From TrEMBL:
Protein species of origin: Rhizophlyctis rosea
Signal sequence residues: 1-18
UniProt feature, compositional bias: Low complexity: 142-153
Pfam family, one: DUF6973
Protein name: DUF6973 domain-containing protein
Transmembrane domains' residue ranges: none
Keyword Repeat assigned: no
Alphabetized UniProt keyword annotations: Signal
Domain DUF6973: 48-154
Residue segments, region Disordered: 105-160
Residue ranges with Basic and acidic residues bias: 105-121
InterPro entries: DUF6973
């Protein structure tokens, strides 16, 4: 690994672990995206510091959109399903489908969540990557609309 990659990874990890998570995001899941140093290093190792930062940006955008569109169903409801879909669609736009799957699968496998929640998240992540492929080059808003429609019409899975 190059020294510049290690320095960038350290800077990213330090910034990500030092910054407090906003209160609404903490309510979304028991474990928020990229707050665990092991997950950060795993992401950096898998896709590099630049694409890992892009994946984190996608997660932040998806979380904010879910809070705005579905504020009452952020855990196991439409908002949760939308967030996973949109996060993966954005990652496809930013880092490609292969790396998006790698980051998302690592995130889901790192957490200690009930089996049904993990299965729901993996399913919605997959739907999001398909939407990302179909909307690539059409802008983030096209992916957002497609994931919102999928959440509203029952295409995405939810537990409540």
């Amino acid at each position: 690994m190059k020294i510049s990659t290690i320095v960038a990874a350290c800077a990213f990890a330090s910034a990500a672990s030092a910054a407090p998570a906003p209160a609404p995001a903490a309510a979304l899941e028991k474990r928020a995206y990229y707050t665990d140093i092991g997950e950060i290093w795993g992401c950096v190792w898998a896709v590099g510091p630049i694409d890992c930062k892009r994946a984190k940006t996608a997660a932040s955008k998806a979380t904010k959109a879910a809070e705005q569109l579905f504020p009452t169903s952020l855990h196991n409801g439409k908002g949760d399903a939308f967030r996973h879909c949109y996060w993966n669609a954005l990652m496809v736009h930013y880092i490609g489908a292969g790396q998006a799957k790698e980051v998302a699968d690592a995130h889901e496998n790192k957490g200690k969540q009930p089996k049904k929640e993990k299965e729901m998240d993996l399913y919605n992540n997959s739907k999001g990557r398909t939407i990302g492929k179909n909307t690539k080059g059409k802008g983030d808003s096209a992916a957002k609309t497609a994931c919102k429609n999928a959440a509203n019409n029952g295409t995405l899975r939810r537990l409540n």
